[in-house]
Amino acid sequence: MLSEIIEAGTACRLYELFAVSKLLWRILLDGLRIAPVRTITDLHLAAEIDGSESYRRLVNAAAALSATHGTDARRQLVALLRGSDFV
Q1: Which tens digits make up the pLDDT trace of 70-84?
Q2: Concatenated DSSP letters of 15-53
Q3: DSSP H or E run through 7
Q4: Which one, of 19, 70, 82, 28, lies nearest residue 48 by Cα?
């Protein structure tokens, strides 16, 4: 269970590193009017890492770990990771 969290967390961090670098580069090129920014959805994949899929795996692994601490803790963690108010 912890190995899944570590693996998914590492993939999320790598995705963030590559996606942010790519986005900053594209904004710079757009600002210099060298190449216009097309769409931000092109950043769905960065360094062959699917950002939404790696985050989903991280949420699921963290939820599985939190389930060992009770239903309320699991529900709160999942709500926070998905960006909603916890119940």
Answers
A1: 777 777 777 777 776
A2: HHHHHHHHHHHHHHHHHTTSS----GGGGGEETTEEHHH
A3: helix 2-31
A4: 19
What DSSP element (H or E) covers 59? helix 51-66
d(CA 13, CA 74): 23
Distance CA 21, CA 35 (A): 16
CA dist., res. 36 & res. 26, Å (int): 8
Locate 2 and state its tokens: 């912890």
Domain range annotation of the chain? 2-81
**pTM value surpassing 0.70:** no
Q: Rounded to an integer, what is the distance from CA 2 to the centroid of its chain?
A: 18
Distance of alpha carbon 46 from alpha carbon 51, whole angstroms: 7
Query: How big is the chain, counted in residues?
Result: 87
